[in-house]
Amino acid sequence: MPPDDALVTCAGTALTFGRDARAVVAVHGANLTIRPGDRLAIVGSSGSGKTSLLHLIAGLERPTTGRVTRAAGLEPSEIGLVFQNDSLIPALNVLENAALPLILADRPETEAQQAALAALAQVGVQNLADRLPEEISGGQAQRVAVARVLSQAPRLILADEPTGRLDHASGARVLDALLAAADLTRAALVVTTHDPSVAARLAQRRTMRGGRLLAPEETP
What we know:
With about 220 residues, this protein is α/β, with parallel strands linked by helices. It has helices spanning about 50-60, 95-105, 110-120, 140-150, 170-185, 195-200, and strands spanning about 10-15, 25-35, 40-45, 65-70, 80, 155-160, 190-195, 205-210, 210-215. The chain is built from 6 helices and 9 strands; from the N terminus they run βββαββαααβαβαββ. A hairpin with a 2-residue loop joins β8 and β9 (about 210-215).
């Protein structure tokens, strides 16, 4: 049985794409428990399975074998996922993109925009509020994608290489914002990264290698 205080528990969770000779195992039997207030870095090289594991935790993929158990009171809207690609909607400006999850959750438009503006300020792009995605850089777009998640004040924040497309100063600011937002609501924060300096800022670290999530004692 998962711990009573767990937000998400993975038990022998595996994910395979394709079948037979073409089958590719992206995640091999991962065991992981995420609790409120956790600060976890999942470290590994490109192709190690980090993104696939994050998608399993978020519910975007269903495990081929094993289980992913989420707390009974954890609503999908309380899980915020920062994708590796910014995934902004081209027809919406920066403010509208950041406010979109709140609008879809039936929050009043004025309230949604205020929360979105505050989140944009946290990552230093509030001055871009009226710009369209095509009018900003890739790094700026990634910061907007982070703000879109922060505006929701989720209970679980999953960030997939959130600093990978940013320079050092911008990356540090984004990580500051993620940590501050998680501290404010006692949310759990899980960050995938290949950058040791990013991993060093989170209290817990697990390594993925070849689709396997190593136990803490196995971590190099």
